[in-house]
Amino acid sequence: MKKIKNILALSACLLTAGSLTTSCSLDLVPLDNYGSNNYWQNEAHVLGYIDGMHKHLRDFAWDHTIMLGEIRSGIYVDGTAYDGMTTSYGEWRLNQLTEDKPGFSNFADIFGRITNCNLLLARTPNIDMPQDKKDYCMAIAHGLRAFYYFDLYRGWGGVPLRTGVEVIDGELDPNKLYKERSKPSEIMALIKDDLKKSLELFGDQNGFDVLGKGSKVYWNKAATECLAAEVYMWNAKVTEGDQQATPSDMAIAKQYLKNVESNYNLSMLRNFADVFEAKSHKSNSEIIMAIRYAEGEETNSNGSWLYTTVTGSARQSGYLEDGTKWDDPLGLKNGTNMSMAYSLAMWKQFDDEDARKRATFLAQYRYEDPENKEGWHLYGIHTQKNIGYINSVGERVYCGDYVLYRLPWVYLALAEVANFEGDNDNVEKYINLVRERSYGENWDAAKYGYKASSFTDNEYAILSEKNKEFIQEGQRWWDLRRMQETKGGKHLVFCERAAMETNDGLIYPVLEENEAYKVLWPLDKTMLGNDPSLKQNPGYADPDKCVNW
Q1: DSSP letter string over 392-437?
Q2: Are 143 and 195 in contact (CB under 8 A)?
Q3: Under a CB-based contact definition with an 8 Å cutoff, are residues 282 and 290 in contact?
Q4: Phi, psi (degrees; rounded to nearest 5) at 383
Q5: Residue by residue, what is the 3-state secondary structure of 498-528?
Q6: Which end of the chain is more exposed for a tag (fewer CB within 10 A), N or C?
Q7: Are residues 316 and 310 in contact, defined by beta-carbon separation less than 8 angstroms?
Q8: Is there a contact between 545 and 109 (Cβ–Cβ < 8 Å)?
Q9: What predicted TM-score, i.e. pTM, was given to this entire model?
Q10: Pairing state between β 361-369 and 374-383
Q11: How far apart are CA 158 and CA 179, in angstroms?
Q12: What does 33-65 look like in DSSP terms, one character per residue?
């Protein structure tokens, strides 16, 4: 990692968005004498660079999962969290992003990561190493580049299309490096081409640790197939600019999903809580691709959904569900501040017999009148899913992996495909596969099983199941954007039925139809000022549409 650290940093800081940045010195000489050209000499350099690319993927995990995939989806508390702190990311949660408060700047710095993919693809063909390893590394790079561009496409629409390494090769003229936004259709074509090349280069592989670097935490063929399914599902339902929704793409998505279902020896764990148990169940049989966190290396940010043990109101006046006084029930000891909180509707959506309810949340209760023990009520929820473990010295370590894809995602995607095809048998089959695991010994198909109905009811049932299964996994915003109330009709992001009740008892769509431009993020003013070739997304640059934000 030392040998690749500086060249990765160099390539990432040289090129971030549509413009040349000046935040890194272009005269910086990397340590260990590893410049762009003298680094790429042998197999060890390529394999080391693969390590660095996955480290950068981990650095992006929070943005991909929470900020891009969930926080705007209408399930977060606005104002004060259940432990007394003010919640973070107000503009995001309320969908009040503007040019001045864009959420992300520099396209979330995704282009630095894309440049790293471009560099590996440019240099690896000339390296003397076994062809199968060379192909595998290039398959990873094509898969990751498609992954990053798909986030850009869904987040901003058309973006600059960069597949070269001009800056690394010495091109420093800003006028030549400026690049206007490509059409959405051109970005989608690149994504599909990268997916095709990735699968071709992976060949017949169906394993998860071919390079010996860690099972299911390095990009793999199954991850490319999952991403391909997600891309083709999206393109079957969503029009973006000149890229029209293409219903025939759904059949292609289905084939990728069926491949993943059949070819990789995957199976769901019997106990939902075990999926994110970090001591002995990492890279378990239902995981397809995860971002690794580990004690002593890097930890996740999931303490943001938890109480503080020092000054929080949970400690002062909270009770557990069984009436026990709150006394650090998760063994946090210190170091957490609750800046993120889900609405109580996320707890109330579950049946009591659904194991996901308490595997995901720890409920906090209060008395309205503590002195007389009257007015017992649910006050808040703390997310205990994926919070690592208590180590040998009694400290909680937040080392749960962030999962990009796992088998229940495949099943519910297949249910969505089946609904699109009018296949109610498979809608029922795949929804109930996920439900049955969740209810365990409480499973009663007659009581809890889903019976397929109309397209609309099925679509909402799939969304409901995903709301329960994938909390904190970066799915809901994209689901609302992609899924439809009627086939070819209104997307669920504009539908009240898809909304979750706020803690004030209100229900309203995540976005109103006259806010359709908000499905994309705005470009920040600094980037627009630095690069004259870039143009703002429609709506954000129109003052008439910015009134009362």
Answers
A1: TTS-EE--PPEEEEEHHHHHHHHHHHHHHHT-HHHHHHHHHHHHHH
A2: yes
A3: yes
A4: -85, 110
A5: HCCCCCCCCCCCCCCHHHHHHHCCCCCHHHH
A6: N
A7: no
A8: no
A9: 0.93
A10: antiparallel
A11: 12
A12: G--HHHH-SSHHHHHHHHHHHHHHHHHTHHIII
Task: List Cα–Cα distances, 14 to 27, 56, 113, 115, 437, in angstroms.
Answer: 11, 15, 11, 9, 48
Distances (CA, A) of 285 to 223, 274, 275, 402: 14, 11, 9, 15
pLDDT digits (tens, 9 = 90+) for 420-437: 999 999 999 999 999 999
Query: Per residue in 120-177, pLDDT tens?
Result: 999 999 999 999 999 999 999 999 999 999 999 999 999 999 998 866 665 445 556 6
Question: Do residues 378 and 344 lie in contact, with contact meaning Cβ atoms separated by under 8 Å?
Answer: yes
Q: For the chain, how many helices (H) and strands (E)?
A: 20, 6
DSSP-based three-state secondary structure for 361: strand
* Rounded-to-10 torsion of CA 281, 285, 286, 290: 60
In three-state secondary structure terms, 157 is: coil
Residue with tokens 């943005």: 63
Query: Strand, helix or coil at 318?
Result: coil
- Dihedral sign for Cα atoms in the order 381, 70, 354, 449: positive
Secondary structure letter of residue 194 according to DSSP: H
3-state secondary structure of 472: coil
| Residue 175 CA from chain centroid, whole number | 34
- Per the CB < 8 A criterion, the answer to whether 298 and 58 are in contact is yes
Low-confidence ranges of the chain (pLDDT < 70): 1-37, 166-177, 542-549
3-state secondary structure of 382: strand
In angstroms, rounded to a whole number, what is the distance separating the alpha carbons of residues 5 and 406? 30
Q: What is the pLDDT of residues 245-290, one digit of tens each?
A: 999 999 999 999 999 999 999 999 999 999 999 999 999 999 999 9
What distance in Å separates the CA atoms of residue 413 and residue 230, rounded to the nearest whole number? 8
The CA distance from 380 to 364, in Å, is 5
Mean pLDDT score of the chain = 90
**Strands 396-397 and 361-369, sheet pairing:** unpaired
Environment class of residue 492 by beta-carbon count within 10 Å: exposed (0-12), middle (13-18) or buried (19+)?
Answer: buried
Q: Which of 174, 194, 158, 121 shows the shortest CA–CA distance to 14? A: 174
